[in-house]
Design a protein that fits this description.
79 residues, alpha+beta, two-stranded parallel sheet, 2 helices, 13% strand
Length: 79
Amino acid sequence: GPDCPPYTPDFIKLTESFGITGIRVTKEEEIQPALQTAEASKEAPVLIEFLIAWDDNVLPIVPPGSPIDHMILENERGN
């Protein structure tokens, strides 16, 4: 959000420094084109970075600052 500081590293620039295609997805409508680009790339890997809102529940997820064994696999309702 606008109150958050920029994050580092910039994974897109980092991947590009290694000659790898990097795609940053910030909106739902960007997902399919990013996946199509990655699928079409036969010569080199493609990194897709998905930026999500801090409070989005994308499962499975490791809460920020938590160790991997604190991964949340399902929501409270068991879905």
